Amino acid sequence: MKSTLHRTLLAAVLVSTLTTGCAPLLIGGAMVGGVNVATDRRTSGTQLEDKSIEIKAGARLRELGDKAHINVNSYNRVALLTGEALTEETRARAGELAGGVENVQRVMNEIAVGPASSLSGRSNDLLIESKVKARLIDARDLISNAFFVVVERGNVYLMGRVSEREANRATEIARQVSGVRKVIRSFEIISDDELAGYAPKPAQ
Prior knowledge:
GMP Synthetase, Chain A, domain 3; alpha/beta; signal; 9 strands; 25% strand; BON_dom; globular; Lipoprotein_DolP; Histidine-containing Protein, Chain: A; Transpt-assoc_nodulatn_dom_bac
């Protein structure tokens, strides 16, 4: 069972890597990818744990059946749940299921109570997400891969290990994108000294 899950995890990481065009990182024969590992401020082990959390939580949430439509995203062991549940009880149960997954340190239960969102609504969220990411890339004073962006029902969720200045700057950028209703932050604020440690080293 464990080896099957491991193969599933690696396959999911491979798909994520291929769709983003970023090169994978090989660690002891295991591949970690989906973001640019050179600028991702999580350790390689944490990146793998986050992907594992998404897969395991998604599997557990399937027990809810057609009572809910839920998306799971994990950054630095914080599991973000978005989507819709038909009842408050189902919403709470989803949080319990995700919270019981190995390595989850905190659950952000942002599931709305109500019917599943429409296809047009989800398409609009994807458009907003692409705009926010593009704006972060265009910002010369930010490292875009330091931010994890999720959009649901026009709400933008920003996650990452960033300085106070970076957090405020990214929030300002996201709020200026058309269609954004609200920006919800879940940052791990790091010091300027820690930030300096992530700066690219000059070529020798």
